Amino acid sequence: MLEPIKENWRILLLVVVVIGSSVALFGPGFGPEPAPGESASEAQQGITNLQYGLDLAGGTRVRAPLSGYTATDVALDGDTPGAVAEAVAAELDNASTRDVGVVPEERAVEVTELSVTESQFRAAMDAAGYEYADVRSGVTQQTRDETMSVIQGKINEAGLSGGSVQQIQSITGEYFILVEVPGQGRQEVIDLLEERGTVRIDVAYPDGNGTAVQDGALIQDDFEEIGTAAQSDRGTGAYVPVTVRNTAADGSQSPAHAFQDAVAQRGFADAYQTQADRCGYNPETGAIEAVNGDRNPCLLLVVDGEVVNSFGMDPGLADSMAAGSWADTGNFRLTTGEFTEAQTISLNLRAGALPADLDISGEGTSSSISASQGENFRTYSLVIGVLSVFAVAGMVFLRYREPRVALPMIVTALAEVYALLGFAALLGYPLELAVIAGFIAVVGTGVDDLVIIADQVMSEGDVNSRTVFDSRFRQAFWVIGAAAATTIIAMSPLMVLSLGDLSGFAIFTVLGVLIGVLITRPAYGDILRRLLTVR
């Protein structure tokens, strides 16, 4: 029993790989991760666990750089990032410290405010007294990483299954953010990306000169828990339940206590004694207008710098803030007029704000593929794959005219592709046209290697012993190994460089070569030995 297993363990390994690929392709638990609110069956794109990219599923691809300028090799002189950002922002008329980033590890200072020009940034750096080597377009690697994380969070929170975000680099060295969202229209994706996602609560209150505004009474970092959007109890409008942090790590006043003090100071408790809808803020004029003769303070919900809603405060909530007890819990509702607005606010709060804007309308590009076109591409890919297999099989049969040699060759080559599909399902790698091209290349190179084995083994006459077979097989395998090494070396740059679809082609070509050298070629050798060796 042990002797047959020892002699044919390579064949058994191939069988195990094929069985494992079947589990990955069709078994439960290996499909794409469902988006929030989506079931596993809804996330699955077919009878298999394979995921399809834009080319085969339809969807939208957006490629755009991040807007901003970065000063490199900055002499920070030991100053803290906060001090540097404050000093540079003070020299810019149209930017705040939120728009200036400092990355000590990269010795870089960046500005992400769209209205700031390169000359203005240079002048600000000079005026702040920080020496630098140069100023370039774009942002730091840290900001690009944060942006990719936030965009991925936006995609996930919006329930866009299968969306991906990655960084790519052009030949000229410029960095781009590549966003791909299968199954979604172009405008939907662009709207999602163009929202920078900054959400804050301002306090507008009447003063002797008209209307004053306390900016940023609550900002995104102040929220500890963010609920999902819900319809208002009154049947009109919607809200997002949130919890404001009532602790501060550095011992300073917590956001909940600071907001509570601001509300109490502006007189919300006196203004809202009987009802919560007497806010007369006019977003067009920026003024608080009288309602029933009273000009009352208002809370402003500001998204991406635009006031999307203004509201008063429930009398009980206002009283608890005036009494100083509200901050113990920090529970609050961000109310809006529309449920879709509440969903957007919840999404932005959960995902966070983009550190920089995507320049989609400038240097960016976007494209979309309809679902029907993607389905056509899948059909054509399947047809081309089948035709390539038949073409290779026909040439092999014409070459050898011996089914016992040719048939195992075709079966082994197909097993190699099947194993690659299993790896794709296991890794959750979306199949694109470039990946399909890699599969076809694997079929061609794989059969080529198997032909080398068959020719080397059979070219010198009958194989009358296992020793003779092993000697000829080793000679063939050296040739195959050298060719595989050459292929891997040639494809390696495409695997590591950010070149979009070419990376997928290179990854699966190299993976196919490794599977062939380590599993399928040795297994075919064992099969051929059993068929040809005279015992």
TrEMBL record:
Transmembrane segments: 12-31, 377-398, 405-427, 433-454, 475-496, 502-520
Membrane-topology annotation of the record: Multi-pass membrane protein
Localization (cell): Cell membrane
Keyword Transport: yes
InterPro entries per record: SecD/SecF_arch_bac, SecD_arc, SecD_SecF_C
Alphabetical UniProt keywords: Cell membrane, Membrane, Protein transport, Translocation, Transmembrane, Transmembrane helix, Transport
Keyword Iron-sulfur carried by entry: no
Record's GO cellular component terms: plasma membrane
Protein export membrane protein SecD/SecF C-terminal domain span: 367-518
Any Gene Ontology biological process: intracellular protein transmembrane transport
Pfam short name (any one): SecD_SecF_C
Annotated NCBIfam families: PRK08343.1-1
Function: Involved in protein export.
Subunit structure: Part of the protein translocation apparatus. Forms a complex with SecF.
Family stated for the protein in its record: Belongs to the SecD/SecF family. SecD subfamily.
Protein name listed in UniProt: Protein-export membrane protein SecD
